[in-house]
């Protein structure tokens, strides 16, 4: 099994129309209906979004302008006043949903908890008051570094409630990665836990926070709030560190949601790009609330009877938009799971489906490929008949994995939604609507209503059907990122300057290559920049290179993604050493560990190849294309005439 190649997907012509019983009960139950909505949105995007903003969300004050577009900056629902925590919680309390399960949580060691909307509201209000008591004011940034426990969602919603933007940092990131993110955002408060459970180990989160803050290296941080999860002993610094449960006990549950300007920042989420430094993607309130709400509602075809489970971590955008905000804004039941398949219980995910009668299951292709490896006896031994809809996200799905998902997990009765989107887009951009869109294994199909996508060349001209090109979005949408935190110039350069369309058009360039087939379906081919996709996680090659060169032994490093059966790609590093160091297995391990320390285990190189020199052009640029071929064990393809020293290639091939 491997990543889809142009050849494999060009031959992919199986078509799966929505099952008729699904379509009959779906919100959008036919292609005619999709087209009608799509065309209406295309003809008048502002009118389309305004109508939905009015009917789907509660506003404290209405906007006076739907869209203010000064490329590349968009403002949506200008001067509207809204609070996403209100839309996710308070408004459900006046309906029968008050005592409906908002979050169902299953812990790794087998503990579990269900929070109804009323209970979740109460805890969010208490924490919002705790944050205030710790000096957090509207506009102050709060770092959240948590395991997958309900408190992570509670902390996010509490931030949103008082207008303190959150910056969630994935709990798998190292102390060093945490520190750079806290410093960049000048976070005032950090919310964490003593630790988290991961497979059969615990992850010492609080210790990592201590290390990040050590010697006043993140001087903006005034307080640390710690959830007791693993019960392991942690150091608590008096005056700075506080236990969550202690402060919660004394906190009032009365905390009205702060009316926020529609364009007030809701959160920052750091993501990898083509330079060494991760960028803080900024999302704002009103547009993000609307877009995640509507995409959740239509794409998951959410019903009040659904038990919806997205397996992502809240540390990524998928967790933000489709565990917390989108589903809760709809009053849905969202399931959170702390565990992952582990040798002691490789079928644990299917146990969770069976235990709670999960109806919608949303995961990543890398997880599906891992399930295939674990064997179909595991899902077959559980009752998965509650499932009615499956989804995937994070990387292109290879048609074999799609077919396995369809047959073994979906019992051939569940539509599959392959959703293409990004941290930057806030919500789904290309996706089937499950009651309407006939699906093709490996294609994210068609744009969501209101989204105008195209595959173009560098001049912004559409390429012919079935030819490869750059995937762009041609019209602003409500949940688009607003800027890179603290670096608007980088925002312009990264997303808006690669493609130069004629006239005064401005195309958002996602960084992905794609093609459109003769039915207009989009096939996303993967990144065309120096971003790797390792187990569905984004990692910049430069980010890993800067981690490597910060080790004293390393003179130069070049990192590429190497195709991997399960992970999609893994990290492969070519390294030249400083004169006084010799290549050895011990040094190789030391360098791998160094990357784990600088970034986190997700970035650990799978392989390191020591070499005397790297292939470069005459102007000194490393030729990654050649290295990618070498890492994959392929013949070096394409033009090598710009290579400065051709003998380098032979040496690398022979492993020298
Ligand atoms: C890739 C994750 C193909 C893509 C939501 C994108 C996909 C990057 C798909 C964003 C998909 C995500 N098909 N590729 N369905 N979904 N990608 O920011 O390369 O972590 O640019 O957001 O993942 O990753 P991010």
Layout of strands and helices, then pairs:
Blueprint: H1 6-10, H2 20-25, H3 31-43, H4 45-56, E1 65-70, E2 73-78, E3 81-82, H5 84-93, E4 101-106, E5 112-116, H6 117-133, E6 142-145, H7 150-162, E7 166-168, H8 175-185, E8 189-193, E9 196-198, E10 201-203, H9 205-213, E11 223-227, E12 241-243, H10 244-249, E13 260-261, E14 265-271, E15 279-284, H11 286-299, E16 307-310, H12 317-329, E17 333-337, H13 348-356, E18 360-363, H14 365-374, H15 377-380, E19 389-393, H16 399-409, E20 416-419, E21 453-456, E22 469-473, E23 483-484, H17 488-496, E24 508-516, E25 522-527, E26 531-534, E27 537-540, H18 541-549, E28 554-564, E29 568-577, H19 585-598, E30 607-610, H20 624-631, H21 647-653
Helix pairs in contact: 3-4, 5-6, 5-7, 5-12, 6-7, 8-9, 11-12, 14-16
The structure holds 5'-O-[(S)-ethoxy(hydroxy)phosphoryl]adenosine.
């Amino acid at each position: 099994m491997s990543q889809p190649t142009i050849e494999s997907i060009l031959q992919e012509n199986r078509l799966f129309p929505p099952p008729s019983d699904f379509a009959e009960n779906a919100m959008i139950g036919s292609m005619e209906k999709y087209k009608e909505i799509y065309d209406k949105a295309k003809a008048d995007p502002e009118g389309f979004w305004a109508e939905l903003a009015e009917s789907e969300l509660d506003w404290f004050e209405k906007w006076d302008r739907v869209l203010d577009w000064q490329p590349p900056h968009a403002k949506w629902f200008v001067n509207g006043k809204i609070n996403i925590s209100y839309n996710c919680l308070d408004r459900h309390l006046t309906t029968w949903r008050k005592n409906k399960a908002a979050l169902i949580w299953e812990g790794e060691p087998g503990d579990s908890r269900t929070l109804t909307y009323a209970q979740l509201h109460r805890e969010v209000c208490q924490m919002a008051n705790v944050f205030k008591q710790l000096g957090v004011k509207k506009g102050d940034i709060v770092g959240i570094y948590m395991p997958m426990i309900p408190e992570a969602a509670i902390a996010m919603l509490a931030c949103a409630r008082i207008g303190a933007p959150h910056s969630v940092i994935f709990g798998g990131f190292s102390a060093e990665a945490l520190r750079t993110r806290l410093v960049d955002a000048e976070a005032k408060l950090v919310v964490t836990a003593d630790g988290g459970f991961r497979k059969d180990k615990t992850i010492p989160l609080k210790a990592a926070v201590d290390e990040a803050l050590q010697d006043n290296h993140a001087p903006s941080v005034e307080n640390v709030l710690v959830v007791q999860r693993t019960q392991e002993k942690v150091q608590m610094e008096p005056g700075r560190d506080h236990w969550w449960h202690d402060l919660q006990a004394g906190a009032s549950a009365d905390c009205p949601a702060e009316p926020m300007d529609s364009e007030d920042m809701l959160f920052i989420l750091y993501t990898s790009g083509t330079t060494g430094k991760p960028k803080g993607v900024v999302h704002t309130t009103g547009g993000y609330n609307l877009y995640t709400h509507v995409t959740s509602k239509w794409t998951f075809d959410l019903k009040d009877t659904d038990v919806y489970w997205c397996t992502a971590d809240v540390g990524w955008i998928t967790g933000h938009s489709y565990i917390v905000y989108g589903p809760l804004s709809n009053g849905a039941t969202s399931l959170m799971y702390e565990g992952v398949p582990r040798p002691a219980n490789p079928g644990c995910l299917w146990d969770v489906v069976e235990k709670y009668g999960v109806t919608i299951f949303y995961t990543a292709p890398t997880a599906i490929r891992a399930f295939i490896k674990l064997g179909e006896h595991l899902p077959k031994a559980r009752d998965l008949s509650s499932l009615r809809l499956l989804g995937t996200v994070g990387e292109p799905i290879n048609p074999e994995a799609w077919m396995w998902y369809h047959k073994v997990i979906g019992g051939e009765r569940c539509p599959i939604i392959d959703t293409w989107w990004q941290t930057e887009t806030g919500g789904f951009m290309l996706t089937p609507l499950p009651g309407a869109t006939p699906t093709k294994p490996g294609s994210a199909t068609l744009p969501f209503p209101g989204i105008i996508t195209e595959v173009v060349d560098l001049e912004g001209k559409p390429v012919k059907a079935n030819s490869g090109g750059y995937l762009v979005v041609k019209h602003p949408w409500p949940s688009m990122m607003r800027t890179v935190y603290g670096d608007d110039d980088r925002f312009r350069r990264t997303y808006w300057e690669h493609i130069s369309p004629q006239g005064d058009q401005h195309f958002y360039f996602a960084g992905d290559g794609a093609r459109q087939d003769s039915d207009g379906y989009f096939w996303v081919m993967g990144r065309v920049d120096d971003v790797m996709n390792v187990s569905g996680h984004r990692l910049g090659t430069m980010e890993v290179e800067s981690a490597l060169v910060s080790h004293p032994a390393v003179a130069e490093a070049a990192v590429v993604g190497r195709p991997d059966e399960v992970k999609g790609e893994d990290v492969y590093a070519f390294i030249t050493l400083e004169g006084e160091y010799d290549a050895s297995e011990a040094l190789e391990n030391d360098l791998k560990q160094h990357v784990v320390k600088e970034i986190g285990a997700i970035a650990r190189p799978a392989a390191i190849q020591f070499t005397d020199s790297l292939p470069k052009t005459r102007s000194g640029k490393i030729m990654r294309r050649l290295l990618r071929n070498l890492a994959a064990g392929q013949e070096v393809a394409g033009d090598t005439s710009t290579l400065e020293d051709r003998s380098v290639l032979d040496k690398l091939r022979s492993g020298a």
